[in-house]
Every structure is written in structure tokens, then in C-alpha cells.
Amino acid sequence: MTNTEVERVREVVQRYIDATYKADIPALKSCFHKDARMTGYLGDMLLVGTPDPFFEDMGSAPSMESKGDPYKAEIRALSVTGRIADAVVYETGFRGDGVLEDHFHLICDNGVWSIISKNFTTI
Prior knowledge:
NTF2-like_dom_sf; Nuclear transport factor 2 family protein; FrzH/put_lumazine-bd
């Protein structure tokens, strides 16, 4: 693991955070690998599939930025081993008062880091 690779992974995760806040769907999509999976819990509802429903949902309402939502996201953990990485992000103020924890797996494919899976839960 080099500092350069850690920073490259951190950039992808930060881009995800910024794009989520701004509902910037092209930027959000650019964070994910073309074959990415997304699983997790919204309350008691289990979601398993691709990130496409997340993109659609984020694009269907005004951005948290434009609404002045108190969104904050903190990268609580990040590690890189060779061409794989993982990160944990804790989000508060999601669409007002939502609290989530996201666990990301990232992969370096042809020199490009991207999210290959996102596992999340509301808290």
C-alpha cells in the first residue's frame, strides 16, 4: 500500500460523498464500477441489486445541498491492499435526519479505482 494509492481511493470515496450531497448523478455514477452491487437495509427493508435504484432515487428529488440539509459524512476507516480497498463512511443529516453507515469495497481495474460493492444500513 502506498500513500498515493490510499489518496486515490480516498478521492473516490470523497467524490461519492460530494456527489451524494449535491445529487450529481454523473459524478455519483463515476464512482462505481460498471458491475457494482449494492446491498443493505433501509429500515427493515433489505435491498439487493445494482446501484441503479440509488442513482434514480438521488436524482428524483432536490439535492440535500439545495435544501440546506445538515448532511455530514465522515470516512471512519480506509485500507488498501494491492488492487483492493475498503472504506467505512458514517453519514448524518441524510435528507434531513437520516443516519447511515456505508461499507465500500473498491477495486483497481485497469488503473482506475471504483466502488465494486456498497453495503449499507440505516441507524
